[in-house]
Amino acid sequence: MNATYRFSRLAARGSRLALGLTLISGLAAAQEVIYVDGAATSSGTGTSSFANAFQTLEEALDPAGPLSTFNSIEIRITEGTYVPNGSLSFGSTGVSREATFLVPDRVVSLRGSNDAADSTEAPPGAQTILSGDSGIQGDPGDNCFHTVVLEAAGQFDELELQDIVVRDGFADAPLATSTEAFGGGILAFGAKVRLTDVVVRDSFANFGGGIAGLRNMDGGKDFIVEMRARRLRVRNNTARIAGAGVYASGGMYSSFASCTFRANTGVTSGGAVFIDGSVVDFEAASSRFFDNSARQGGAVYTSLPASGGHRLLNCTVAYNTALDVGGGVYVEGGADVTGRRRQLHNSIFFENAGSSTVGQDNVFDAVSPLSAMYAPGDTVSYDHSFVGDADPGSITGKAGGHGGGEEGARRGEA
After folding, report:
1. pTM for the complete prediction?
2. Which one of 199-213, 214-228, 276-290 scores highest in mean pLDDT?
3. Is 232 helix (H, G, I), strand (E, B) or coil?
4. Rounded distance, CA 142 to CA 119, Å?
């Protein structure tokens, strides 16, 4: 009887295991890989391999396409330059500049790829480029408002962009209440997104020339942006108002690891990054901020967080310029309190330039403290950091352990 009982239990376990494997198999089958090749001679079904690839990215992103059949899809794209053709749009004015690569729910991955062998390791010079230059080539005034839009509309799956260059968006709408004023390169609208080995460049917006993260509260929705980035490169972007590289707002949670922000220009605040007070959590780790400029906060402008914290850890902030104050970092007024902190830890602030003489006493008494960081009447947690305008030779050894020195930051840019 004991043997029979043991056999029955084993049989039951086997049935449950078989059922579990069946369910896992069904879930795996529900996700499909879709292929896009802009150089294909004709458009295929988009499935199986690059031999059957779609010709346009819009075919893969069309909610009436593969997403009408599969629960989720991963899209692989060959090298080449892709420009929105107008079949997908984001906005309500109906103008042609609302054309964009609108990434809907259930797309879990958008990956650059370079050949029919399904390789995702692009050789030197081979890039998958998503460009908003949809009108007269070189004339930004008729470019798409946003090159890429990531919108949450009811699903909470994370979307990953990998091995892709995003460029040439032009979000120049005049009103801060219009989404067309935010995120020239990428607009993350209430979405969860991961950016890996992505380049965002040569884009413009009033807020967030390269990337903007906004809370989606349309139609009763309330989705907060969550953004994680690794080896992201943000360069040559411009913002008329704030956050030329990245504009973080609306309760956003974000982390940037081993990223480079270079040569971004914010006319008012935050040349590389602008972090407003509604952002719950922002962290940049082992990242580099070089040659950015703005009136306040040449590299970074941070407001007092409503909760959580804003942190720069193991970063190098150098050769940035503020026309007014805070060539490296501008910390907006308001003392940090329990649960709401700004931290500058184990980082280098070097050769940043600010023109005003206000606020030098608000930074620990280093050489040219205003150039490195400006904190008007604020209390900021900083430790194990280097601040000053010393000769580069005196910090070469430290620079290597804090996100890389000048040469490291200026090499390998896309």
Report:
1. 0.81
2. 199-213
3. coil
4. 35
Amino acid at 119: S
Report the C-alpha gap between 62 and 56 in whole angstroms: 10
Beta strand segments in 204-335, E: 204-207, 211-214, 226-230, 233-235, 238-242, 246-248, 253-257, 260-262, 265-269, 273-275, 281-285, 288-290, 293-296, 300-302, 308-313, 316-318, 321-325, 329-331
Pairing outcome for strands 253-257 and 226-230? parallel
H/E element holding 201? strand 199-201
| pLDDT tens for each residue of 109-143 | 999 964 433 444 444 457 999 999 998 888 888 99
In the numeric block, which tokens belong to residue 332?
A: 């907006």
Instruction: Please name the amino acid found at residue 318.
Output: A
Amino acid identity for residue 71 in this structure: N
Structure confidence at residue 353 (pLDDT) = 81
- Asked whether the beta carbons of 201 and 234 are under 8 A apart, the reply is yes
Smallest Cα–Cα separation from 374: which of 309, 409, 322, 318?
322
DSSP conformation letters of 318-340: ES-EEEEE-SSEEE-SS--BTTE
- CA geometry: angle at 245 spanning 240 and 246, to 5°? 100
Counting other chains too, the contacts that 61-66 makes at CB distance below 8 Å and 24 or more residues apart are 61/88, 61/101, 61/102, 61/103, 61/104, 61/107, 62/87, 62/88, 63/104, 66/32, 66/34
Rounded Cα distance, 31 and 325, in Å: 50
Average pLDDT, the chain: 76
CB under 8 Å to 318, separation ≥6 — which residues?
289, 290, 328, 348, 349, 350, 351, 352, 406, 409
The backbone torsions φ and ψ at residue 246, rounded to the nearest 5 degrees and listed phi first, read -135, 135
Residue 383 burial class via C-beta count within 10 angstroms: exposed 0-12, middle 13-18, buried 19 and up: exposed
Reported as a single tens digit per residue, the pLDDT across 88-113 is 988 766 678 999 999 987 898 999 96
The reported pLDDT for the residue numbered 376 is: 53
Q: Quickly list DSSP for 102-145.
A: EE-TTEEEEEE--STT----PPTT--EEEE---SSTT-GGGS-S
* Residue closest to 253 by CA, chosen among 272, 229, 220: 229
- Beta 293-296 vs 80-82: how paired, if at all? unpaired
- Give the up-direction half-sphere exposure of residue 318: CA atoms within 13 A in the CB hemisphere: 29
